[in-house]
Design goal:
Chain A: Its EC number is 7.1.1.-. The complex is a heterodimer of chains A (550) and B (630). Chain A is an all-alpha fold. In chain A, 69% of the residues lie in helices and 2% in strands. In chain A, helix 8 packs across helix 11 and helix 17 crosses helix 20. In chain B, strand 1 and strand 2 form a beta hairpin. Classes of the chains: A mainly alpha (550), B mainly alpha (630).
Chain lengths: 550, 630
């Protein structure tokens, strides 16, 4: 065949007149968690348009809480109905999976988001501006920082109550992401939750320039990585002639059976599979913040409003690891000896890189950002086990880690001085003397991060390392434990700083939050301790949820 | 009947708990509670003894299994007791002498404000010592072994306000620790070799050659010997016993003369089958015994402190027992017999010494005694009988038991037998010398004390009664034991018995013993009886001065062990500071530096972030392709 004929064939086959477009079959009940959240988001937009400003905050908060709670109830209902185990199947014409991991992760995301909404709605930490209580978000996002319009907006007591529907849209995308069962749905879901996050990052009330810079960086790098992901999807389509997970897996396992005439030159070409697979993985590794695709993490975590940082750090990680698990366990298990070595390498540099660079950080939010990178490495170690235990240990770790992270960032919002949140580590010196309770709670979270027994961090780390060791990667566990030792240094350093250093005279004070943030922090502590003291029930739950539908 | 065994230990244990936890409300009655419980234990022992005599010879051992202590897979440890003839002998000695010394202490400690605690410790000691001799396995024996060590430590340092007492207690504890390590290693070896701790299976297996290999059995036996050396103050772990005399005198009598220090002899006799299977270890045992019996005797000659002179004597007498135990079946029974008679006369001598000190304002220097026989007649008579017994005056206890050991030593045969027998005879001569010296310096000659300051007087009844009872034992026990070799046959089922073949008849040995005894006594009389004893010690010969310093044992330990140990520690500390800390801080510094370097990658520019991502993607793709290529 000559190239001219090729192109001709492509044109003619692509341009063939469609017959009747078949109406897709949608299982609404099984997709209800996602649908509820998206529906509420749309209502939220309408609320912004039609409700008077003074009511919006309350209504939006209620709406978001209700939607997330209802979504969680729907997840529980589906799981109780057996969709996590025996009735697991592919819904919406094979685009979305309804199975154990999907439901477990969706439930985690919904709970985490519910707690995050509490921190979003907190209005008592910032001093009242012109007699009106304000939250962490900019008065008017479109106003130029420092300009007259901004001053007017602040004076008018505006708040950006749009954050709630934006958050709900992001949550909706995150719910689809780990359930996506074809590459296009995966990509769409990625964009659906990424775009709202870019906006949320730019909305800080204080240090707006830093916040906008963070959002722009996140957006640029996110778009960049999306391009890689999309390119990888194209190559995989070229290899398999399909974008469904099951279809690609079948081609990998059995070789090509039916050659699509339009793709005759590329189908079954392993180079496409390998390159495409690597690029799709890269797109997901960017989202989980693995080295060397982590560069956005510290800058964005630092610049974003702290409640958003907490939400991102917790929920995005859950969603992205969910998608990564499904991709590796459903699409690519047949070629695990191709991707495992390189992913081991990624896990190692992620664990070590995150832990080592965190040592010299001077800002608490950046410190937590590098900590999240190191944790991404630990979770990767579990992901790479490629066993049933690997799946369930990662599910457990994600649930445990997300609550610790949310709680930790919620505590960060409390420590304030005249310039807003005091994120400089040096300012935290002696915090334990002034506010023993807050410092003690933060210490609990730090110990959980460090993986000290009796906290959820230990149970999670033990589970993933055990799974990794049983899969034959004992040396990976050794490196993981060494990284944990390095990481323990900077976690404990903060504890030492808080409890054993003299407080500074002009140090920050701890603001008294409303019950919203208090609830969020308290939930974080409770989950951390419960999962640490009695992890077995939840490990069993994750174990039952550990089978992917194919 | 076997259910009574636990009661033997329980009585003093309850006493210890009551007295140590009971608080001040027991201050006024505590000493009587302690004494009563010790006597109760003795009463139980007497009942058990009568019962045992009523049964046939090979049916005399009793066993009591209380409960399983540690059941972990193949590791099985029981709390179980075994009361056979050997244990019975010890139980009677411990509870009998123990009760007497409790009674004595009522008078001796009358004015001590921590008397209740003292009796609590004494009861604790009794319980631990009984556990030691009643255990039916090595692990439980070890519990008792450590228990008596603890009680000994607490009682040596009872007057802890005196720095010398505190130091002595610490020294005893540390030196004993060396021996204890030996015992624990021996027990571990026993378990790995035989798979059990219990006496019966271990000793049965040790007897059948080849089951364990002589090398292993020798190692076990040598470790047991090390343990015995520590507890029984044998060379080279003897240095603590002299200092242990810092404790109250009843303690010296009970623990550091009659009972605890003989635990080593018990251990070796109990493990007889192991030693019989390891001739090399047996040679080591007799060597240790022979050296110590001379060592202790020489030290005893030079001491002016009455208790330290007696301590040297104890060391020497236990040397006899250890040597006898090392001789094997021809010696075990005589070792135990000498142990019992020694328990009587040495306890009596110590109590006598305590009585003298009691009347002399706690003066211990014999050069400040003299002519006390008129002032304390009961003490003089009982001490004198003990003296005659220990030097082996014909017809008294020590004569029968020591004579048999000397005979057995010669019966070992060959050059070894001659050396051992010669050493034992020489030891007997020196014993006669130093004991006569103690006797003369204390009770005879001119008084060397100031009548204005010191008013020697006889001790109260609570003190003299035990001395009198012990004196009866010193006089008659040996003779009673030797009627038809009663004692030896009584022990025979446990220790086995063989008659040696001495190179010359028993009469020759006995005659020789009596002759060297007379030489020793005569020499002492020439030196200390015929001419006045100087109130301050003369400079003396090199040997005398060395003997006064315990034959330089402390100097040796200090130079070799303490200084060597300190040097080793210093070196290790320096290594720790440079190498270990260096490695640790070096790692930290390296990590910090690495962190600083890697941080620079995070320069805030999106363009370089994007470039790094491209690089990362390229590596990812390249490595994936490469893995397939390889």
């Amino acid at each position: 065949m000559n190239p001219v004929t090729d192109i001709h064939t492509l044109w003619t086959t692509a341009a063939e007149a469609p017959g009747r477009i078949p109406a897709p079959h949608i299982e609404y009940a099984q997709l209800s968690p996602t649908l509820i959240v998206f529906g509420a988001a749309i209502i939220g937009v309408l609320v912004e348009a039609f409700l008077p400003r003074r009511h919006r905050h309350t209504v939006q908060l209620l709406l978001a809480v209700l939607a997330l709670a209802a979504g969680f109830a729907a997840v529980v209902g589906l799981a109780a109905g057996g969709f996590a185990t025996t009735k697991a199947h592919l819904a919406a014409m094979g685009a979305l999976a309804v199975d154990g991991p999907a439901l477990f992760l969706q439930g985690t995301i919904l709970l985490v988001s519910l707690v995050a909404v509490f921190t979003f709605a907190e209005r008592r930490l910032d001093p009242a501006s012109h007699g009106k209580r304000v939250d962490s978000f900019a008065a008017q996002a479109a106003a130029v920082p420092g300009g007259a319009a901004e001053q007017a907006a602040v004076k008018a007591g505006f708040t950006t109550s749009e954050v709630f529907p934006i958050l709900l849209f992001a949550v909706g995308g995150m719910l689809i992401f780990p359930a996506a069962n074809d590459l296009l749905t995966l990509f769409v879901a990625l964009e659906v939750f990424s775009l709202p996050l870019y906006i949320l990052c730019a909305l800080a009330r204080r240090q707006r320039l830093l916040s906008q810079e963070a959002a722009l960086k996140y957006f640029l790098l996110g778009a960049f990585s999306s391009a890689f992901l999309l390119f990888g999807i194209a190559l995989l389509y070229g290899y398999a002639g399909t974008v469904t997970y099951a279809g690609i897996a079948e081609v990998i396992a059995d070789g090509t059976k039916q050659i699509d005439p339009a793709l005759a030159g590329t189908m079954g070409n392993d180079a496409l599979l390998l390159i495409g697979g690597a690029l799709v993985l890269m797109g997901l590794l960017f989202k989980v913040g693995a080295v060397p695709f982590h560069m956005w993490t510290p800058d964005v975590y630092q610049g974003a409003p702290t409640p958003v940082t907490g939400f991102m750090a917790a929920a995005t990680k859950v969603a992205a690891f969910g998608a990564l698990l499904r991709l590796l366990y459903v699409v690519l298990p047949g070629m695990r000896w191709d991707w495992r070595p390189v992913m081991w390498g990624v896990a190692i540099v992620t664990m070590l890189g995150g832990a080592i660079v965190a040592i010299t950080q001077t800002d608490i939010k950046r410190l937590l950002a590098y900590s999240s990178i190191a944790h991404a490495g630990f979770i990767l170690a579990g992901v790479l086990a490629t066993t049933q235990d690997g799946i369930s240990s990662v599910l457990f770790y994600l649930a445990a880690y997300s609550f610790v992270t949310l709680g930790a960032f919620a505590v960060v919002t409390l420590v304030r001085d005249a310039g807003g949140e005091a994120t400089q580590l040096s300012k935290w010196a002696g915090l334990g003397r002034r506010s023993p309770l807050v410092a003690a709670v933060f210490a609990v979270f730090l110990l959980a991060f460090a993986g000290i027994p009796l906290t959820s961090g230990f149970a999670g780390k033990f589970a993933v390392f055990k799974a990794a060791a049983q899969s034959g990667a004992g040396w990976l566990v050794v490196i993981g434990v060494l990284s944990s030792a390095i990481a323990a240094f900077f976690y404990i350093r903060v504890i030492v700083l808080m409890f054993f250093n003299e407080p500074k005279a002009d140090g920050p004070s701890v603001a008294v939050p409303s019950p919203l943030t208090t609830t969020a922090i308290a939930l974080g502590v409770v989950v951390t301790l419960v999962l640490g003291l009695a992890p077995q029930y939840f490990l069993d739950l994750a174990g039952q949820a550990g089978t992917f539908v194919r | 009947m076997e259910n009574l065994i636990a009661l033997l230990i329980a009585a003093p244990l309850v006493g210890a708990a009551l007295l140590l936890c009971g608080g001040k409300r027991l201050d006024r009655t505590g000493h009587w509670i302690g004494t009563l419980l010790a006597v109760a234990s003795f009463a139980v022992a007497a009942v058990l003894f009568t019962d045992m005599l009523g049964r046939a010879t090979d049916d005399r051992a009793l066993h009591q299994h209380l409960f399983t202590w540690i059941p972990v897979g193949g590791f099985h440890a029981d709390i179980a007791f075994q009361l056979d003839q050997l244990s019975m002998t010890f139980v009677l000695l411990i509870t009998g002498v123990g009760s007497l010394i409790h009674l004595y202490s009522v008078g001796y400690m009358a004015h001590d404000e921590r008397r209740r605690r003292f009796f609590g410790y004494l009861n604790l000691f009794l319980a631990a010592m009984l556990l030691l001799v009643l255990a039916d396995n090595y692990l439980l024996l070890y519990v008792g072994w450590e228990g008596v060590g603890l009680a000994s430590y607490l009682l040596i340092g009872f007057w802890q306000h005196k720095p010398s007492a505190a130091t002595a207690a610490k020294k005893a504890f540390l030196v004993n620790r060396v021996g204890d390590v030996g015992l624990s290693i021996a027990i571990m070896l026993l378990f790995t070799t035989f798979g059990t701790f219990a006496f019966a299976p271990v000793l049965d297996a040790a007897g059948t050659a080849g089951s364990a290999g002589e090398g292993k059995v020798t190692a076990i036996a040598l470790m047991l010997l090390l343990a015995a050396c520590g507890k029984s103050a044998q060379v080279p772990l003897q240095s603590w016993l002299g200092d242990a005399m810092e404790g109250p005198t009843p303690v010296s009598a009970l623990i550091h003369a009659a009972t605890m220090v003989t635990a080593g002899v018990y251990l070796i006799t109990r493990s007889g089958a192991l030693f019989d299977a390891a001739p090399a270890a047996q040679t080591a045992v007799v060597a240790v015994g022979a050296v110590t019996l001379l060592f202790g005797a020489i030290v005893g000659c030079a001491k002016d402190d009455i208790k330290k002179a007696l301590a040297g004597s104890t060391m020497s007498q236990i040397g006899y027992m250890i040597m006898a135990a090392g001789l094997g079946p021809i010696g075990y029974a005589f070792a135990i017999m000498h142990l019992v008679t020694h328990g009587f006369f040495k306890a009596g001598l110590f109590l006598g010494a305590g009585s003298v000190m009691h009347g002399m304002n706690d003066e211990v220097d014999m050069r400040r005694y003299g002519g006390l026989r008129k002032h304390m007649p009961v003490t003089f008579i009982t001490f004198g009988l003990g003296y005659l017994a220990i030097i082996g005056f014909p017809g008294l206890s020590g004569f029968f038991s020591k004579d048999k050991i000397i005979e057995a030593a010669f019966a070992k045969g060959g050059t070894e037998g001659l050396i051992l027998g010669g050493a034992a005879l020489l030891g007997a001569a020196i014993t006669a010398f130093y004991m006569t010296r103690v006797m003369l310096m204390t009770f005879f000659g001119e008084k060397r004390w100031d009548p204005d300051e010191v008013h020697p007087h006889e001790s109260p009844k609570t003190m003299t009664i035990p001395m009198i009872v012990l004196a009866f034992g010193s006089v008659f026990a040996g003779g009673l034991f030797s009627i038809n070799e009663a004692f030896v046959h009584w022990l025979e089922p446990v220790t086995s018995l063989a008659h040696g073949h001495p190179p010359f008849g028993a009469t020759v040995t006995t005659a020789a013993t009596v002759v060297v005894l007379l030489i020793g006594v005569a020499t002492a009389w020439l030196m200390y009886g015929r001419r006045p004893v100087p109130a301050t010690a003369p400079r003396g010969s090199v040997l005398t001065r060395a003997a006064r310093r315990d034959l330089l044992q402390d100097d040796f330990n200090h130079v070799v062990l303490v200084r060597g140990g300190t040097h080793l520690t210093d070196t290790l500390v320096r290594l720790d500071h440079t190498l270990v800390d260096g490695a640790v801080t070096g790692t930290a510094v390296t990590m910090g530096g690495l962190s600083g370097l890697l941080r620079r990658l995070q320069n805030g520019f999106v363009r370089s972030y994007a470039a790094q991502m491209v690089g990362g993607a390229a590596v990812l793709v390249a490595v994936t392709l490469l893995m397939r290529g390889v």
